[in-house]
Specification:
There is one protein chain. By secondary structure, the chain is mostly helical. The chain contains seven helices and no strands. Helix 1 packs antiparallel against helix 6 and helix 3 runs antiparallel to helix 6. The longest helix has 33 residues.
Amino acid sequence: MKENKLRLLVYSQSVTFFASSLIFPFYILFLKNVGSSFSAFGLSYGLFGLSSALIYLLLGRISGSIENRYLLLINSWGMASILLAFPHVTSVLQVYIIQIVLGVFGAFQKHGEKMLLATYTDDVNRSGTIGSYHFWTALFSSFAIISAGFLADFFTMDFVFYGSSILYFISGFFLLPKQSRVLTPPKEIMKNFGK
């Protein structure tokens, strides 16, 4: 049972890392084009880190009442949605807002990932399993960075952002419970949000 859940986690996060690495080189260029000063660039990344830091405190308190898979699902589908807005951003203020949202989703991903790795492994196999997990996610990430350059040569940056959005959306399906691999959220989520 745990092995199957771990496998789905690896699939999901490998696709997630592929999607994020696909856009990362272009994302930096995109930020530079919208606000080319070093201070604007630094502030945008600072807002990302600050929003993540604040959300980690909240996640530490509530993650015991929410299944950690759903934190990754929120990240996957949240990122899929926010990436659709990227090609339409025209001002530095919009970049700042997106950076704050990205920081929140990034915190959901990192917290959920770490909690699930701890849950799906035990002392006997933890080290090897986590090493294998990082191998696959890093491998997919490196393939994405290589692919990104070729895609940019043949397509537009908008295509790369939209493609990445689709991959994030797909990665979320690996996280759904078997009985609810449809777009309606499981009942447990709704119960826990009321607490």
